[in-house]
Amino acid sequence: MEKLTLKDIDLKNKKVIMRVDFNVPMNDDNTISDDTRIKASLKSINYILDNNASLILMSHLGRPKGKDLKLSLKPVCKRLALLLKKEVKMAPDCIGKDVEKLAKNLKPGEILLLENLRFYEAEEKPSLDTNFAKSLAALADIYVDDAFGTAHRKHSSTYSIAKFFPGKSICGFLLENEIKHLKKILNPNRPFYAIIGGKKISSKIGVINSLIDKVDALFIGGGMTYTFLKAANLSIGDSVYEEDYISEAQKIIDKCNSKKVRLFLPVDLVIADDFNNDAKTQIISTDENIAENWQGVDIGPKTIKEWEKHLKDAKTILWNGPLGVFEFDNFAKGTNAIARAISKLNCTTIIGGGDSVAAINKLGISDKFTHLSTGGGASLEFIEFGNLPGIEVLTDK
Question: Against a cut of 0.85, is the pTM above it?
Answer without folding.
Answer: yes
